[in-house]
Specification:
single chain; alpha/beta; four-stranded antiparallel β-sheet
């Protein structure tokens, strides 16, 4: 390696980054002995004092340690450090009652979704008529008793399903050995396992603002702190990320890089590379929530962060829920093997494995090509629904709101021009049979926004709801005046 002597990054930091990269990529595995400071100084063509300073810093971080007999060994890696927390004490956790309830508005939304004839204009799932119910029924009718086991699966999940996930991710640029895949009951469980298995109370989650995570309390209930960063048209802003203060304990970055929820934005390839470089330099692990990837409409999205990750820094979450069926409750986590082993152990303590029936169905759908065929169908249908909603917005909201056309996913992030209380609008809409997802659910500062979904409401329901919503907003704006 040649150090960049013209870089503003001090040589000591470059040496630290070099050593950390060698550890993270497995070149210098845990337990192996590092070259001596003298040898490393000669190799990198720096003063020995520079290498000594780098060794001191990495020792303080717990990555390396000196031996009494001389020499220095690798004793951990970035993800390894995050996985050292003791197993969760579920009994004490329940008794303490520290799991925070959903926001009142979220609880109302969850209940209102089952009101007959309600128009769900913000729901983040496919309409029932886009779920392949008949195909799934045929799948179960034709099941062979030799091909399905209804017993408990191994800790990481059904091996054949993990092999299918591995094959599925390979064309997407994600190299995932089946042993580095953990099957989970949806992406939300993946986040819960991470929160209790890898992070201490008081850890910091760096995420986009707004974000889906603000609408659930899985991390906050585990004692985590959120540190929201703004986005621009290219995604999470790198300059802000570089200013993160890591002195507050463990810090991890969470990002929905593709068809972001709720804004629908897609992080550009250039921004993804910048995020990876900054996080690698700062030794910040990343959780990439990529559940919307297959819902592209205009063109396939840029490669995932995980596909560009060459240091094992990204923990990758995927799911079948957004394309196939939310009821299957099947997703996966891909990451460094010691982390997956840790999370698998926590999952076994939690639920003793995801549904064997759902895992079998998921494996069959992926193996047979049914998933890919249905994904193509869903994309075509979402294009029709998106364009229809955008046409309605152009007719009824051109003077009331601003928005961008999403290139995939489920959502239009609508910014209202009139200054209207979001709680009042939510309640009035609900009273008129329209269920909304106000922006304040995803960011307290997003009081002027609505997350509109074109995935669930039918064309006829959009025809009813969009004009009715305009009338409500106009009336509320006039009342305020």
């Amino acid at each position: 390696m040649k150090l960049n002597r013209k870089s503003p990054i001090p040589l000591r930091r470059q040496v630290e980054a070099y050593i950390t990269n060698q550890i993270a990529t497995g070149e210098w595995a845990i337990g192996s002995q590092l070259p001596s400071q003298r040898v490393l100084a000669e190799r990198l063509r720096v003063n020995r004092s520079t290498v000594t300073a780098a060794f001191d810093e990495l020792t303080a971080q717990g990555l390396i340690a000196g031996n009494r007999g001389g020499g220095t060994q690798v004793i951990n890696n970035t993800w390894g450090l995050m996985a050292k927390q003791k197993p969760a004490d579920w009994g004490a956790y329940v008794e303490a009652g520290q799991f925070k309830p959903n926001l009142p508005m979220i609880r109302t939304i969850n209940q209102a979704e089952f009101i007959p004839d309600i128009i769900r204009l913000g729901t983040g799932e496919l309409s029932p008529d886009l779920i392949p119910s008949n195909d799934l029924a045929k799948l179960f009718l034709n099941v062979s008793t030799h091909g399905m086991s209804l017993g408990y699966s191994e800790p990481k999940g059904n091996l054949r399903l993990r092999e299918e996930v591995s094959k599925f991710l390979k064309p997407k640029g994600v190299a995932a050995d089946p042993e580095s895949v953990l099957i989970v009951s949806g992406a939300l469980q993946a986040l819960q396992l991470i929160s209790i298995g890898l992070l201490d109370r008081g850890s910091t989650i760096v995420l986009e603002k707004p974000s889906y995570l603000y609408s659930v309390h899985v991390f906050q209930s585990s004692g985590m702190r959120f540190y929201g960063l703004p986005m621009d048209s290219e995604g999470l802003m790198v300059d802000c990320l570089s200013q993160i203060n890591k002195e507050r304990g463990k810090t991890i970055v969470y990002s929905i890089s593709t068809f972001h929820n709720p804004t629908g934005k897609v992080m550009t390839s250039a921004r993804r590379k910048s995020i990876l470089n900054v996080c690698e330099r700062m030794r910040l692990p990343i959780i990439e929530d990529d559940v919307y990837r297959d819902l592209w409409i205009d063109a396939p999205p840029p490669p995932s962060l995980k596909s560009m990750d060459h240091s094992g820094n990204v923990l990758y979450i995927g799911s079948l829920s957004k394309v196939l069926s939310p009821g299957l409750r099947i997703g996966w986590i891909v990451g460094e093997r010691s982390v997956i082993n840790r999370l698998a152990d926590i999952k076994m303590q939690n639920d003793y494995g995801s549904s064997a029936l759902s895992q079998w169905a998921a494996e069959e759908c992926m193996r047979s090509g049914m998933y890919e065929a249905h994904a193509s169908y869903v994309r075509d249908q979402l294009r029709i629904r998106r364009d229809y909603m955008l046409d309605l917005l152009s007719v009824y909201f051109s003077d009331l709101a601003k928005w961008s056309s999403p290139s995939g996913g489920f959502y239009v992030w609508l910014k209202l021009i009139p200054d209207i209380d979001p709680n009042t609008l939510f309640e009035c809409a609900l009273a008129n049979g329209i269920l909304l997802n106000p922006g304040v659910v995803y960011d307290r500062a997003a009081s002027h926004y609505l997350r509109l979904s074109y995935a669930y409401a039918s064309i006829n329901e959009m025809d009813q709801a969009i004009p009715a919503l305009r009338k409500l907003i106009v009336n509320l704006a006039e009342e305020k005046v």
